[in-house]
Write a structure and sequence with these properties.
- The complex is a heterodimer.
- Chain A is an all-alpha fold.
- Chain A has one domain.
- Helices cover 66% and strands 0% of the residues of chain A.
- Chain A is built from four helices and no strands.
- Chain B has a domain of 34 residues.
- Classes of the chains: A mainly alpha, B mainly alpha.
- At the A-B interface, helix 3 and helix 4 of A face helix 2, helix 3 and helix 4 of B.
Chain lengths: 150, 89
């Protein structure tokens, strides 16, 4: 790609990553969550691939993304098992004062980050999974195309 | 044969028209107990201001688990499909 595309996409990658992380981490306060936030972060990876092409180390990067995909899904299931003393997917952290455990009363409020119990942690796990899965899929397809053309 | 087809189409459109006439009004559900419960108590029970996220990740966690599993399976399938062949390495 041209120098303009390369410069702009290199510049825009950081804001896109930060916005995706914001959508993931504020999933329990604002519209969004793990799925759209991970998609936003994966879009930044897609833009980098489109602008800069592939490098020699991308096969290893695909394996790393694949690993993080598994880690995200396993973390999500582990957070579901945390509540197993009452039921599967029970929110044991909400309102108990520990991590993400501030209690929330009914009605409008400014929205505090340290609320939600296991929901922010699950959002983060799902965000990692979506980001890694979409990036690994794009890298796998691009690597296959390069092999076919060589 | 053609008459039968026309008769079938006419019956189908009569059915559609009747269904549209007797359709329940949009925005006025008959039973609102579950909606009211989620709106009233999801903030206190899940601690999340976003009621949709509270439902998706707490009350209906199994649904989200299924979504995540579907995405995982799809990505695994694509990676498996586009893998490097063994004899080319």
């Amino acid at each position: 790609m041209s120098a303009i595309v390369k410069t702009v996409s290199a510049f825009m990658t950081v804001p896109m990553m930060i916005f995706g992380l914001y959508v993931i981490l504020h999933g329990h306060l604002t519209p969004g969550g793990g799925f759209p936030g991970g998609a936003v972060m994966a879009t930044a990876v897609a833009m980098l691939i489109a602008a800069f092409g592939l490098s020699q180390s991308d096969a290893r990067k695909k394996d790393a993304f694949s690993l993080f995909e598994s880690i995200g899904l396993l973390a999500f299931i582990a957070m579901a098992f945390v509540g197993l003393q009452s039921t599967f997917f029970a929110n044991v952290l909400a309102g108990h004062g520990w991590i993400f455990g501030s209690s929330v009363s009914y009605g409008p409020n400014p929205g505090y980050l340290e609320t939600g119990g296991v929901i922010p942690i699950m959002n983060f796990a799902v965000g990692i999974e979506v980001f890694a899965a979409l990036s690994a899929v794009m890298l796998a397809i691009m690597l296959h195309r390069r092999e076919k053309h060589d | 044969m053609k008459a039968l087809r026309h008769l079938t189409m006419a019956a189908f459109f009569c059915f559609l028209l009747a269904g549209a006439m007797y359709m329940h009004g949009v925005g006025t559900p008959e039973r609102t107990q579950m909606d009211d419960y989620f709106i009233k108590s999801s903030q206190e029970e899940t601690g999340a201001n976003n009621v949709v996220t509270g439902i998706l990740f707490d009350y209906r966690g199994f649904d989200t688990l299924g979504e995540a599993s579907v995405l995982f399976a799809a990505a695994s399938g694509v990676i498996l499909l586009f893998r490097r062949k063994r004899n080319e390495q």
